[in-house]
Design brief:
The chain has 210 residues and is α+β, with helices and mostly antiparallel strands. A hairpin with a 2-residue loop joins strand 8 and strand 9. The protein contains four helices and twelve strands; from the N terminus they run βαββαββββαβββββα.
Length: 210
């Protein structure tokens, strides 16, 4: 079964990979769009890599940079970054390609969702460490494999205020499921408030360091 890769390609001379370029016309890959001088491709079995190498041989003075990942992978998607120059290829690094899966009702609170999403990314960027091992790059992730008792672990991040509780569950390297709970309005209860004050005062009298 053939697999598709998603590739974002940029060049020190953007004209070489523009929509009207010979590279795009002759490529077996599909150009999706161009944004900020970066060309986005769908490629079968990542065949575009050989095409980039050939292009770098034709223009040895130029530098080509490609970021790509397997499009079918959701749980352990990794972005690989390569540099091509004069037919030579060098790996620059790897990083998780996070995918956020949300329910339709979240769009009603999209501004809140974007804030939470950035909050989650800040956490994950600290947790997911890329190490150099034997000259190559390796993602040092927490072990989430099923253990001998059948348990699987995953990361949960929550953020809440008086109205909403946002929950992110990260499974594998890249799969992040987002949900939101709307809280019931809090009703002020004078009796409950008084009880709390009395308990607090009694605890203070018992010598707790308040």
């Amino acid at each position: 079964m053939s697999q598709q890769s998603y590739t974002v390609l940029e060049c020190t001379n953007p004209e070489l990979i523009s929509s009207g370029s010979t590279f795009v016309k002759d490529s077996d890959s599909d150009l999706l769009w161009i944004k900020n001088n970066k060309s986005h491709f769908f490629a079968w079995e990542n065949n575009i890599e050989n095409e980039i190498i050939e292009l770098s041989l034709k223009f040895p003075e130029e530098t080509f940079t490609a970021k790509w990942h397997w499009d079918h992978e959701h749980y352990d998607r990794i972005i690989y970054t390569y540099e091509y120059k004069n037919g030579n290829c060098k790996v620059l690094g790897i990083e998780p390609a996070y995918l956020f899966f949300i329910t339709a009702d979240i769009y009603r609170h999209y501004e809140h969702y974007e804030v939470f999403r950035n909050h989650v990314l800040e956490y994950l960027h600290r947790l997911d460490i890329v190490k150099i091992v034997n000259g190559g790059f390796e993602l040092d992730k927490l072990n989430n494999e099923r253990d001998e008792y059948g348990y699987e672990s995953y990361i949960t991040i929550t953020s809440e205020n008086d109205q909403f509780k946002w929950i992110a569950e990260r499974i594998g390297i890249s799969y992040i499921r987002i949900s939101v709970e709307k809280k019931e309005p809090r009703i002020y209860n004078p009796v409950e408030k008084t009880d709390r004050i009395e308990v607090f005062d009694l605890a203070g009298e018992d010598g707790f360091p308040f």
